[in-house]
């Protein structure tokens, strides 16, 4: 088993890089804070006998040699970037759980056949550069390196620029990295394990998710002189569309989810009726056919709403991550490890996207979930117990050792 | 009568300072573009025999001497700042119409008893620094100079800083400027004159207007893992409030107006349910008691909507400009001048706020309206005909000469 105290200490340490007053973390991808945590990760893993390198997307690999140099590595990992008002566990636990595994092997002098690697994937959150899972997406062949590098943040700064600024561009081309298996430990970010009082979620797959950018165009007009019936108010129309986006999820309850996270009205002056409103839409469902039906429903509702409100609407798809089913042998390793360790468990489908989604396209993959407080995530109040994160890391350790035997 | 061609030429010239591709103007208060148009105004008026000075709020006064040095000036004017996507007439016509009056007197060698002044009021639009009519508000005693100077734009830059940067802080304290009368020429910014095919609006007053800032607080949550029934979505609640704000105007039709011009959702990430949404509200009515009833209706609806959606709401009043009735003698001067010139006309209440609103608190005031295309304003497509703007300036000339006789 892993050293739970050392793991918790690492979680507290990393929470300081970009730590917020409310106890959360604001560590957007490739910012100065992210540079700091990357340096800490390199130092920590080097002290555990690893060599640390980058690929061309800034993905950070800490490698512990195996006894058989002909075998590809078994990878663990997740991401160290966070949301603007993010928590201390989302992503971070998957990297630090991997470090905890390395530490156990190091402390006990255990060697493995395969080399072991802990990976910190660049820009998983999608909060600074959209879409999410951008660098693991390049690794898994979902995006080209050119596309990913050209993504710009709200200030217009590109991911490529920020990779170079940090000195994170490695010689190895992203994706040219053979691996025997990939295991990602993560907090559930949802309420199921806590509600059922189970310690471990054996993740069988990840639901499908689609993103869109909606643009609603009306006509700007003076707030004091334009009679209500003469207006083409893009924001009033958008408000009605928001209600309809919500209705899409309700029409596909209980699994259908819809979210609008960003909205902007132009020209953004208190005494001007908005001429244009832009908002994002996030639709999710574990079933691809149902997700497809949700999309069609959504598009129809937007058109109907635009027509009823005498405005123009354009819906642009910006991301499509289909539902994923993980590797049966990797899932079995997680399940058997959990049984051996005597933890309560259940199978679970992930509601959130993870680097494992894209890595699973090229490497046999599975995930381990542990409960988090009230299922709250993407929120500074995100919380998990020392017992649960230790249990998850123990499962990770055993699953990796099992894969090493195969 | 004024030289209509020279007036039109001035309108075309000033439209170039901050001119946009779509034929509108983006000349926010005290930006570089505003500095340029101020320099042009000073040069133009100096060439017409005026001296140009600033008061402590950067209000720009071009003064043509009268024959009797004991008399206070008769003022004309409006503003040269615009909305972000503003037009070429809103405000500008009132200043350039004043310049046209000066030009006629200059060209014909006519002298007046009173000195005449054309004033360019600072930051009328409220688009860069809220609230609108900020410097004429200090002139009229509605705001203190400290309050006005401390107003900051979206980037946090204060009005005081920008006044100093431009060298616009004059020795005369704002408000210590006696005047015999004030006449402001403006496009109607609404559809009435055009629809009734009348050339001149004799403005008897301005409707009441109130501004609020609404903050809606829910709980941020993960878009992929948080079941719909467990969400406290601040944006969904805000969308329903937008519908209710619209209903406030509908409940007080046809005169009641309500507008939401600015909206922001936080933390503004595509995969995070918004924890907070802020939006502005602009309520207007020509009758103060009805406006008061609209406010009470609005506050109640916000509370009800917050409760129904399990979110918190705070409504903060940010501006209150009560309904105004202009000076009967000044109104009569405008009406008689219009009759003499043989233009069609009607009495009208302004839907938009104007510098005249606050100036009227300390100086006998009236306004002259001319039609604008389809009533469109606060829009780059804003338009008016050479004939109408010339007619308005002629009325301005006659009204000023009438006031000079009294
Ligand atoms: N784990 C996680 O929060 N990833 C972000 C991608 C998503 O929106 O699901
Ligand atoms: N004239 C004008 O558009 N003024 C801005 C103040 C208002 O919102 O009415």
TrEMBL record, chains A, B:
UniProt cross-references to NCBIfam families, sorted A to Z: hydantase (TIGR01879), PRK09290.1-3 (NF006769), PRK09290.1-5 (NF006771), PRK12891.1 (NF009527)
The entry's keywords: Hydrolase
Keyword Transmembrane in record: no
Family named by the database record: Belongs to the peptidase M20 family.
Presence of the UniProt keyword Hydrolase in the record: yes
Protein name as catalogued: M20 family metallo-hydrolase
Domain Peptidase M20 dimerisation: 205-301
Species, as recorded: Acetobacter lambici
UniProt-listed InterPro entries: Amidase_Cbmase, Bact_exopeptidase_dim_dom, Peptidase_M20, Peptidase_M20_dimer
Pfam families from the UniProt entry: M20_dimer, Peptidase_M20
